[in-house]
């Protein structure tokens, strides 16, 4: 199938493997790119030095196109008074495992817009494209990408966000629905429940295509080749799939993570794990987080405290397990085989 996505990136299949911080790996991205899709690697949670190592590892494994994902969130409010109720409420959980509870929170993931070193790495190593999550890059960074010939994808969850991103000069829009796993890319308001399910995503794609000139990639709860066919029929130029690739052996997902994926465990959206709305498998961590009464500190300050607790607990079920709707349709296949299956399903559809 030839679309604007396959044409511009030289792909066999209109499928992007979503960047998933903490799960995706250079090996996963390379395997997808080698098989004819578009592999992505998440750099938002890495230092510039670690990001450089990840990109170099991918380039050693594939000559195919690669997308580097970046977080462009607004700077959080670092306010001890605002964080104190949350930290006080979670302190007993640390005490239960004889661990020291944090007395403050820090910004563990700086925004790309504030990280000049990361920009230098990207301009030096030049991935095929970058993808932006949580908003827009600054005008100077967008100019730098254009001058370097690096294409830019950006996530939107509404037509209003798509129009705002189009004005910044991005090349592709990734329209993400309410059912997407991990963090919602919403930046002009909360995720819209109206975009849940296949019908909601298809409507979001149709509405966006009617409003913008840019090519649109659909994301959120897409697990099969039939799902890809449906969003292309709605006007998308391709599909971004994350949860579908979590169970691949090239990912960092734990055995327990994969077990829950395949078991049919439900998913739920919460802001209490990271400070931003994100969809997770319902496990011990999510149930604990959803039971908290205090408002979480801003992202990623909240995430800092929760990740410290996860490390202290050392419990396979008390860990971050982002996943989208349809997670129970996961298949535990190597990435190349999974892409082949998806392509066959797309062809049949």
From TrEMBL:
Keyword Lipid biosynthesis: no
A single MF term (Gene Ontology): monooxygenase activity
Names of the cofactor(s): FMN
Reactions catalysed according to its record: 3 propionate 3-nitronate + 3 O2 + H2O = 3 3-oxopropanoate + 2 nitrate + nitrite + H2O2 + 3 H(+)
Coiled-coil ranges (or none): none
Record Pfam families: NMO
InterPro entries per UniProt: Aldolase_TIM (IPR013785), NMO (IPR004136)
Keywords: Detoxification, Flavoprotein, FMN, Monooxygenase, Oxidoreductase
PANTHER family cross-referenced by the UniProt entry: NITRONATE MONOOXYGENASE-RELATED (PTHR42747)
Similarity field: Belongs to the nitronate monooxygenase family. NMO class I subfamily.
Protein name stated in the entry: Propionate 3-nitronate monooxygenase
Native source organism of the sequence: Congregibacter variabilis
């Amino acid at each position: 199938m030839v679309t604007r996505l396959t044409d511009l990136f030289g792909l066999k299949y209109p499928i992007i493997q979503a960047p998933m911080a903490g799960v995706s790996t250079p090996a996963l991205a390379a395997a997808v790119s080698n098989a004819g899709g578009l592999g992505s690697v998440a750099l938002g949670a890495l230092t510039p030095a670690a990001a450089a190592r990840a990109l170099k590892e991918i380039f050693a494994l594939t000559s195919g196109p690669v997308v580097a994902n970046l977080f462009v969130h607004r700077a959080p409010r670092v306010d001890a008074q605002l964080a104190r109720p949350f930290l006080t409420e979670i302190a007993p959980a640390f005490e239960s495992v004889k661990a020291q509870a944090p007395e403050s929170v820090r910004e563990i993931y700086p925004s790309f817009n504030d990280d000049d070193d990361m920009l230098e790495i990207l301009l030096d190593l030049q991935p095929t494209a970058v993808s932006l999550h949580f908003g827009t890059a600054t005008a100077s960074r967008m100019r730098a990408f254009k001058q370097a010939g690096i294409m830019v994808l950006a996530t939107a969850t509404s037509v209003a966000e798509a129009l705002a991103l189009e004005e910044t000069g991005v090349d592709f829009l990734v329209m993400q629905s309410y059912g997407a796993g991990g963090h919602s890319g919403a930046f002009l308001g909360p995720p819209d429940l109206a975009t849940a399910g296949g019908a909601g995503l298809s409507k979001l794609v149709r509405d966006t295509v009617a409003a913008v000139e840019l090519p649109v990639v659909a994301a959120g709860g897409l697990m099969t080749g039939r799902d890809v066919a449906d969003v292309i029929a709605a006007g998308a130029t391709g599909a971004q799939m994350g949860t579908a690739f979590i169970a691949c052996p090239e990912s960092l997902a734990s055995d327990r993570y994969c077990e829950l994926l395949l078991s049919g465990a439900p998913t739920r959206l919460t802001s209490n794990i990271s400070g931003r709305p994100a969809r997770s498998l319902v496990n011990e961590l999510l149930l604990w987080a959803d039971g908290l009464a205090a408002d979480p500190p801003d992202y990623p300050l909240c995430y800092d405290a929760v990740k410290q607790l996860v490390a202290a607990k050392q419990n396979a079920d008390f860990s971050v397990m982002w996943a989208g709707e349809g997670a129970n349709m996961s298949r535990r296949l190597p990435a190349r085989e999974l892409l082949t299956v998806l392509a066959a399903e797309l062809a049949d559809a």
